[in-house]
Write the structure tokens for this entry.
Amino acid sequence: MKALTFVTQKGGSGKSTLCISLAVAAREAGHTVCILEMDRQATVSDWLDHRTVDGPEVAQIDATQIDAVIERLRESAYDYVFIDTPGVDSTGTLSAIRAADLCIIPCRPTPADLRAFKPTLAAVYRLEKRFAFVLNQTPPRSYRVRDAADGLAVLGVLPDVNIVARTDHQDAIGLGLGVTELNPKGQAADEVRRLWAWIARRTQAPRQGQRTERHVQAA
Ligand SMILES: Nc1ncnc2c1ncn2[C@@H]1O[C@H](COP(=O)(O)OP(=O)(O)OP(=O)(O)O)[C@@H](O)[C@H]1O
Ligand SMILES: [Mg+2]
């Protein structure tokens, strides 16, 4: 099992949106996944409430539970555990970073966002965790994206795909879907699939797609 923690204390950068659509894309790629939601805002649970398609399992947990839950899940049939964290720094955020095999830091290509992830990055460095930036809500093409990408590439790992601002992301979450389910042939879906392929290559959890996903509570 590999844990992917979506983290940055900058609100609205796309943690929940990417967590959901990447979890769906991972399932479509044959992986068994579950989502742990650590944000009381409950974006993922709300998404699940609107979902009519089966899976993935979602569990809401708090900072006091994460260590024990992750320990149990390490031995479970899940290939990947996706952890969505709140847009504020908290003890839960630190525990979620500690639990991660890879921290995914979504970032919009704006000066304010590019400054705001620094405390998150400091925590990630302190805990000696692997991380990747994902440029999210980018315009399709702009110098600003290129500048941001150059800056982030110097700091650490940057995937070979950016996630462009597209209404598919907003529509999908509202309907309880991932973007790859909403509009499988759309560009948003293509970008998310490419991002998932990149993350899967980086983390290389063995695919256990034939196994049945167990309930996260029971794992
Ligand atoms: N690539 C995208 N294209 C268009 N809209 C997007 C994209 N990514 C995120 N959004 C929208 O931006 C808003 C914030 O996204 P999201 O809730 O995922 O951010 P967050 O980092 O989880 O925020 P918080 O810190 O409050 O939990 C949402 O309305 C979402 O639909
Ligand atoms: Mg969120």
